[in-house]
């Protein structure tokens, strides 16, 4: 008899396990795509301590489980987030729009993104694909103040070079959004117009002095007195060649430039304070002396320019963002998919976020 | 041309807020009857502040940006200083215990206490906010100092040189605290100015009640001003300066004669 009872118990337990597996599979709990889809950032986390009182009965625990994260719902559809809405079979082959006209965006009361592709005249030169996003931070949205980041990109056909700019307005000054946007426009305007005998490395100093003057002049138009705005600035020139691209980066302040290649993430421009004097950074118009870097990037690399609201989360020590992007950026993401990457969810990072990434292919 | 920089770690900076309450005898007088240490302390200045602080902490916790950056401690002082709420995050229970009953207003004791506590509190914040992938740091602390009296200890007025050295240690060097002083009726104007630090400009963050202000309404306006200050100073990635609006019924102290 005891053996028979044991068999019955084993059968019942086995049936229960099978039932649980069926329910879990039906609800997509066994589908890894569910975990890969980022949670919506509608309600930033406010951690609350767990209830100290445990459930009294097993049945209550089961009911809680049934009500909790295991609601009846279908698994997320892969690619649904960014798949184009096709309404007929009469559409052209989608390609990257050229950036010859340039793009400049800020985030005063909104967020913005841009995309583009660049094809050099030399047939064997690498192609460039650009993704850019400027997102107004939660901190500004909560207190109703303007976002202060700006960014832009310009493909200069004559020289066969792509120019990128990223600027982060200094939060303590009221007109820093204007300063950031002026800096981006001025840098993208001035960088391709240098004397032909000068490369950007040699021209960076005079160029940043001119940008600083433009920023200062724009602010002084608001009224007399000391400047009421300031901004960091990063400028990059990416010149595609056979097998990759020549890259020059010039920067003032704590916005950052990184390269992602087979070796992983490496900083190009990086002025973090490392926990020293807080909230201080070099800025324009006060510090028009850029740091300048030159490097070669191989095909398959990604060059990233970003303000500290995004780049600050990329670190040398086990950064989850760096690890995740290294996997996701092996191919060019769709524009809105790129936006979701910049809009990663984390309770600490609430400032404006700007990132421009270039895939060298 | 610059050489390639080394990759730094992800650095996360959090902020400590100290709310310092004078708990001397004069703060424990019933504002309607004049009774000292009444059975129901809700109508004393100290009772009003401690009642209002709990909803203020809840309101701050509702702000996702402030909540993610700030830890708050409440300190009272009279004959000595004591913690009414340990330095903890806003998600921790907002219990504020009643202060002990002393007669003095010992500025040296409370400033010494803040200096002594800072290292321990900063370590607690780093522990509370620990993330294995990041370096956790603490910013310069904010101190909101509410008092209604002049420095007084051991049966006599406390000389400036008895408490000022502790203020110097607190506001300079590795701690670098930023102090906002808020004087209720009876506070000593010059002392408030000397204790405060500069705000978003050259003027010091020192405030005192107007003579015609309603004493029972002051606590509410002060607590609202502290809440707004914390939110404004930390929400928009500013310079780190304390942004503090003059509370209703108060005025900024002009300390030009001390400069």
Task: Provide structural commentary.
The complex is a heterodimer of chains A (361) and B (259). Chain A is 29% helix and 24% strand. Chain A has 9 helices and 12 strands. In chain A, a hairpin with a 4-residue loop joins β4 (149-156) and β5 (161-168). In chain A, α5 (176-190) packs antiparallel against α6 (200-220). The longest helix of chain A has 25 residues, at 2-26. In chain B, α1 packs parallel to α6 (215-235) and α3 (107-128) packs parallel to α4. Chain B is 33% helix and 22% strand. Chain B has a single domain, classed as 3-Layer(aba) Sandwich (Rossmann fold). In chain B, the strands form 2 sheets. In chain B, strands 1, 2, 3, 4, 5, 8, 9 and 10 form an 8-stranded mixed beta sheet that branches. Chain B is of the alpha/beta class and 259 residues long. Chain B has 6 helices and 10 strands. Chain B starts with 9 loop residues before the first strand and ends in a 7-residue tail after the last strand.
Element layout with pairings:
The complex is a heterodimer of chains A (361) and B (259).
Chain A: H1 2-26, H2 32-36, H3 58-67, E1 103-106, E2 112-118, E3 128-135, H4 138-143, E4 149-156, E5 161-168, H5 176-190, H6 200-220, E6 233-241, E7 244-252, E8 256-261, E9 264-269, E10 291-298, E11 302-306, H7 308-311, H8 320-328, H9 335-342, E12 353-360
Chain B: E1 10-22, H1 45-62, H2 64-69, E2 70-77, E3 81-89, H3 107-128, E4 134-138, E5 142-147, E6 152-153, E7 156-157, H4 160-171, E8 178-183, H5 189-195, E9 206-209, H6 215-235, E10 250-252
Parallel strand pairs in B: 1-2, 1-4, 1-5, 5-8, 8-9
Antiparallel strand pairs in B: 2-3, 6-7, 9-10
Helix pairs in contact in B: 1-6, 3-4
